[in-house]
Amino acid sequence: MKISFFEEFPTNENLEKLKLINFPTKLYIAARSLQEFRKLGNIARKFIPDQRNPKSLGLSYWIILKKWEGYWISPFSIRSALLRTMNEVRNEPIEVMLDLENPSHARWLYLLGLPNFRRNKKFIKEFIEYREQTHLFSTLVELPGDEKKLKFWGLAYETETSYIARMFYTSLIKWSREKRSSKLREVCEEGVKKYGKYFQIGLGCIAKGVSGVEPILSPTELKEDLQIAKESKVSEAIIFRFGGITKDYVKAIETII
């Protein structure tokens, strides 16, 4: 199973932690433009332990918007922001990640975004389909929950060759550890059954995100979650987020690889 990381805040300090990594991995780097992503990618590559092996670090462009534009990708986001960021990578031979979430940091868009909701949903759908038809890699990050409702709200789409990364951050769930683990296994097994090698699982959190309130998993808990994903034959586990990596987390991950 491949171990990768989301990095929402790709500062030099966070990217420099690549020096701790001794296994091939991938960073899903948040950026607001293709130019910014390429600049951050060049910075990240400087910290690869094995400079002779460029395949030791994969990079994917995690498209984010300004907070007032919606921040994440959804039909409620400001239309001009979707067109600006997604059209510039439409034909780019790079991996692109769409984080499909509602604009919880700009709640006024639930009303202001309604006039463009259908057009935006259609645009996102066509973008995904076009990338698939032209054999360009895309990753769709989806929330857990009722798939029909997610599709209705434009937070999940039918795909053929896009990767589906289902978020299941056990640190956010206020259940017993045993119940969280059981549900994680269920999510992993159902995802693998439906999407096969195209299914990925998002695990965490080992660092806070833009909300700033996320509880943190211990290295032991992360190891347990990774073990469940591996046993469920998930092809790739993506940990949120790279800035929280420490030697203790690295040791926990290396026992799973």
Sheet of most strands: 8 strands, parallel, barrel
The average pLDDT score comes to: 95
Domain unit count:
1
> Would you report the number of β strands?
8
Calculate the terminal CA-CA distance, rounded to whole Å. 7 Å
C-alpha Rg (nearest Å)? 17 Å
Unreliable stretches covering 5 or more consecutive residues: none
**Order of secondary-structure elements:** EHEHEHEHHEHEHEHEH
The CATH homologous superfamily is termed Glycosidases
What is the CATH top level name? Alpha Beta
Helix count, DSSP H or I runs of 4 or more residues:
9
Based on CA inertia axes, which overall geometry fits?
Answer: globular
- Please give the CATH architecture: Alpha-Beta Barrel
Label the structural class.
alpha/beta
Q: Write down the CATH topology.
A: TIM Barrel
- Fraction of residues in β-strands: 15-25%
**Going across the major beta sheet, what is the strand order?**
1-2-3-4-5-6-7-8
